[in-house]
What we know:
alpha/beta; Gyrase A, domain 2; Rossmann fold; Isoleucyl-tRNA Synthetase, Domain 1; 3 domains; five-stranded parallel beta sheet; four-stranded antiparallel beta sheet; RNA-binding
Amino acid sequence: xxxxxxxxxxxxxxxxxxxxxxxxxxxxxxxxxxxxxxxxxxxxxxxxxxxxxxxxxxxxxxxxxxxxxxxxxxxxxxxxxxxxxxxxxxxxxxxxxxxxxxxxxxxxxxxxxxxxxxxxxxxxxxxxxxxxxxxxxxxxxxxxxxxxxxxxxxxxxxxxxxxxxxxxxxxxxxxxxxxxxxxxxxxxxxxxxxxxxxxxxxxxxxxxxxxxxxxxxxxxxxxxxxxxxxxxxxxxxxxxxxxxxxxxxxxxxxxxxxxxxxxxxxxxxxxxxxxxxxxxxxxxxxxxxxxxxxxxxxxxxxxxxxxxxxxxxxxxxxxxxxxxxxxxxxxxxxxxxxxxxxxxxxxxxxxxxxxxxxxxxxxxxxxxxxxxxxxxxxxxxxxxxxxxxxxxxxxxxxxxxxxxxxxxxxxxxxxxxxxxxxxxxxxxxxxxxxxxxxxxxxxxxxxxxxxxxxxxxxxxxxxxxxxxxxxxxxxxxxxxxxxxxxxxxxxxxxxxxxxxxxxxxxxxxxxxxxxxxxxxxxxxxxxxxxxxxxxxxxxxxxxxxxxxxxxxxxxxxxxxxxxxxxxxxxxxxxxxxxxxxxxxxxxxxxxx
RNA sequence: GGUUCCGUAGCUCAAUGGAUAGAGCAACUGCCUUCUAAGCAGUAGGUUGAUGGUUCGAUCCCAUCCGGAAUCACCA
Length: 592
């Protein structure tokens, strides 16, 4: 409809003022809900052309538009509010109310969009920060699919390096052969436990050294256990068989643990890269850059790029011993992926602490190496998750563990449901419901915040299940499903004959208009990479339905036509709630 | 110190440069002889960090200042 209005507006301006203008999207918007009308045209931008007072111009344009579009208009303070006939809204309803795919756009014929997220280290379990990353990544990939894009989800597991060696060493020294089975710990938690033990031992040794009169900085470098870990890394790189096999064993434990967490969160990947397989990549690109003169070698043999002309510093690309750094690897993996998939875009879901890194990465690829795919990289930078107590610090034990958190949410859901006296479920149904509610609440709590922004995670609030939460929306859905079951019993099941002529009551009109927005909302969420757009819309829709539900008893309605009409809308809303929540990875219950 | 991001109700968050800045939580007042009260209706709560500028119009764009965060490693 917006496009129709837009075209009409363009014609009107041409006829009235003989000017060709391009219609900016912002000139046409939905009418505020406290004002009569469906769409609003802002006329201020045309005043210069019209050379008239706002009201005079608005009336003139409104008159012209209403005759073109067969709609009513009303001018208030320089805004033209257009109202379309009920029949047009009924047509929209009748065309779409049974469409299970409503809101999802048809498949575009384009190169895929590659999206990397999660990217964990293998020395400790996932925490709250990873949860935000994973939820954002998976949700955005679903949103892009709903926008008609083809997506490829990839994970880049950081399975090598000094951190995993620390866990390995501590396990060797203090583990007594402990395994996930013997300790009854999830593999990632077990490995994480030894990472902590390493750190404790390391600190102990530093303290001793300091007591012997060595400076703290020096002690930090010379603690024997650290030297041992470094030695272990060296041996890993040489391919030492014992080290490699220990490394494989412990990583395997971690993967089994991650798998459980991913499954619980509803995360999956089309492809997983391991850093142990990619960390040597990129050197070739650096050589290439050296040849082109884009990079330079210092006397000690290390390779650098000078980004002064971009307002940045010099950046190291190869160490003096010729080994690669993070940037080298990222240059390599970007190149690898581009060759592999020729994607339209490569999206990296990575925290905003790495903004600088990605700026540099893009500049090196596009400006220095003249690789076109440098411009295809998009760093989807999200804000940190903070706790009421401040920042999460793994060494201080203030991290919120992902597995524990999910479990607590489910427990809270159980407690809440039972307190409300909702016990009309089989055990199996009940457990399934608690999971749905607990995990839904968690996902929604995190996804409803604009990704760019830092967010505060208050455990008590996140467990709250009232107000702007997933359970509120789930509850709304369950209410509708209950309505529809009742309709079924009364012989009013789905292939209803839909009314084609009807005066639409105010509240129903509002609902239809909200439903009408859904495809645009998805598109908007896709272009801004923001699940929060979907979440906020879901809440608005659920709230509007609940108001309607509370004030409008459907089955007491004597007019069969109206009754059916309201059931249609309810059914339609249930579809939109389901399709929208699916994009957030949240399931909805039939009963709750 | 350089660069970047962020400051909106007591708290958590909304608001493609548009009309009277909105929700939820917390507080207070009502509504279950019931299509599910995890709900609905209402009250109260704001100099959108500050000051200038651009504009018909600024929470949004620009400048300066104040406050907070991130980053500036031969870490990842």
